[in-house]
Amino acid sequence: MSQNQSQSQLPSQNGIDPDAHTVASPPHLPGMVGSARPTIELESVSKWYGDIVAVSEVSFGVGPGVTGLLGPNGAGKSTTLKMMAGLQAPSSGKVTIEGQPARGRPAAYRNLGLVSEQEVVYPFLSGREFVRLNAQLQKVKPLDAAVERAIDIVDMRSAADRKVGGYSKGMRQRIKVAGALVHDPQVILMDEPLNGTDPVQRAQLIKLIRELGAVGKTVVVSSHVLVEVERFAENIIVIINGKLAAAGDFRAIRDKIDAHDHEVRIKASNPRRLASVLIGQPAVQSVRIDAQDRIIAATNDVRTFYRIVPLAAQREQIRLFEIQPTDESLTSVFSYLVEK
User: Fold this and answer.
1) Region (Disordered) spans which residues (predicted)?
2) Measuring CA to CA, which residue among 16, 2, 1, 9 is closest to residue 208?
3) CA distance 200 to 204
4) Among 66, 216, 251, 317, which residue carries the largest CB count within 10 Å?
């Protein structure tokens, strides 16, 4: 496919390109996330640095659509993404993209976009110059049209001529995404792209990630926040301590997680009044007030709990400021998923 042809595959600023092709779904493959044929495959992949094992015997496949790569900080997900991108070679095992080695093939990089967690931007360049540099490195033609389209996709036109060094963290994230998409790759790897973004920027990036998956691109997005990934990924891979904890449909894994007892933190205008109301609910096991005057509630039915809290607050005319699980860390998720 030529660069001119592939440019039409990018999602438009207002939605999905209606001319984008759909991807057929062949039979389910062992170790596959989802049902489509895998674009990226890891087979018994390990990576170690001296005596430190970062990734250990990880095997999975990723096909078209959006896949969330979940893991707490230090779990090995950034190392896994770098091996997918061909930036690092596995110490053992094999990483392939469309059946070919991910590392050492410059032609493969033409079809891959990477949004690194590290600040790989030149502060003295403007946003437009940064995106243009990426386009030039990828030998994109027509150059100017591709640059402007990528800038529009991340809604950065108003700041495109400002120096990247003066951008906020969220703006730098968005311009990095533009640089990764300017050559319209079919494989897109994003390492914690939502870090540092405000709610509006986060919503825009989540919408873009969904659109990229909907037009048939293979998108892998790493995150350490479970509820964040739930907003854009149908499939997830969970890596804890360098090992594969789970891989598959997000809803099935979420059902297993929700079946466990949970602890939820609530900030409200009248926490003691709300706590007294909640303790009488069948789904609530215990309620206490912590040192910051927040409600800490234990529940054995988290889905019912999240329904009754707003209703109880509305009935008692209490304002809710935050409802946040305290045990939604990926370490907790790991213990749920590997439970016998």
Assistant:
1) 1-35
2) 16
3) 6
4) 66
Q: Could you tell me how far CA 217 lies from the centroid of its own chain?
A: 14
Kindly report the CATH number that applies to the domain delimited by 259-337.
Answer: 3.30.70.100
Q: What token pair was written down for 240?
A: 């804890």
252: CB partners within 8 A, 6+ apart: none
d(CA 63, CA 29): 10
8-state DSSP, 90: -
* Residue 122 dihedral angles phi and psi, to the nearest 5°: -90, 115
CB contact at 8 A, 298 and 284: yes
Q: From CA 219, how far away is CA 210, in angstroms rounded?
A: 9
Cα–Cα distance, 68 to 333 (Å, whole number)? 14
Digit-coded pLDDT (tens) for 109-137: 889 999 988 776 788 999 999 999 999 99
Provide the whole-model pTM: 0.72
